[in-house]
Amino acid sequence: MKKAVRYFSKLGNTRTIAEAIAEGAGVTAVSITDAPQLTEYVDILYLGGAPYANIMAPELKTYAENLDASKVGKVVLFTTSNWSKRTVLSLKKLLRKKGFTVEDEYFYAHMLHIQGRIDAAHAFGKRNGLNN
Ligand SMILES: Cc1cc2nc3c(=O)[nH]c(=O)nc-3n(C[C@H](O)[C@H](O)[C@H](O)COP(=O)(O)O)c2cc1C
Are 73 and 32 in contact (CB under 8 A)? Predict the structure, then answer.
């Protein structure tokens, strides 16, 4: 099963979670600001970001808008925030509209409990679907 992890992080919280998911998945987490495009097909694309003043970063929105659905089996989302789940909910809507399969379940870590969520993020990256 081929996987990739892409994220946008201003302050480092989402990057920390992305790196833990990537370690579980056996890949390297890549910031969308470094190497945005997927060069080959992946079965699972983990995609994450955070809200800033109640909306996701424009960089992440643009990235999602330009993603190529033919290169992705399904998208699995993750986010960090103070309270809002808006980033994943907006991404889910945007990507489904573009024809992507997006898993309903997503990974959430509160910004004050990032370190305490590392093991769970690692396990989240390891699994291939809802039941394994
Ligand atoms: C300018 C700014 C605005 C934020 N606005 C929100 C918000 O509207 N809702 C929320 O739940 N968290 C908000 N947060 C908290 C961030 O989403 C949270 O710290 C997140 O973990 C940051 O991710 P990052 O470290 O990957 O950049 C805000 C943080 C900053 C710095």
Answer: no
What's the CATH number where 86 sits? 3.40.50.360
Strands (E), 26-104: 29-31, 42-49, 51-52, 55-56, 72-81
- Output the residue whose Cα is nearest ligand 1's atom 16: 81
Range of the domain at 90: 3-126
Q: 111 alpha carbon to ligand 1 midpoint, in Å?
A: 8
pLDDT digits (tens, 9 = 90+) for 43-59: 999 999 999 999 999 99
Question: Is the CB of 55 inside a 6 Å radius of any atom of ligand 1?
Answer: no
Within a domain: 132? no
CA of 108 to the centre of ligand 1 (A): 13
pTM, full prediction? 0.96
